[in-house]
Design brief:
Length: 93
């Protein structure tokens, strides 16, 4: 049997930088001007994300308020129930 030469395993990421094209160290990458449609799309995406975050925060506050109101109502109902039971259990004279 012929011996096969061993080839070292070289990861593909070591040979090429991420993205394939990167600026050399010390060189600034000049960005081309953005298309107005791209700018509009990015602005809308940012506005939508901001709206979504505000909406989520408001919804959380609302749920907290509703939960607190439910808890308060529950406590009041238990107190009223206990008072009614005590009144019913009290001997009539």
């Amino acid at each position: 049997m012929p011996a096969t030469p061993a080839t070292p395993a070289v990861p593909a990421t070591a040979a090429s930088p991420a993205g394939g094209q990167a600026a050399a160290p010390g060189v600034t990458q000049i960005q081309p001007p953005k298309d107005p449609l791209v700018e509009r799309r990015e602005a809308r995406r940012e506005a939508a994300a901001e709206y979504k975050a505000k909406k989520k925060a408001a919804k959380g506050e609302y749920k907290d308020e509703v939960g607190a109101a439910k808890q308060e109502r529950k406590v009041e109902n238990k107190a009223a129930d206990a008072a009614a039971r005590q009144e019913m259990a009290a001997p009539k004279q």
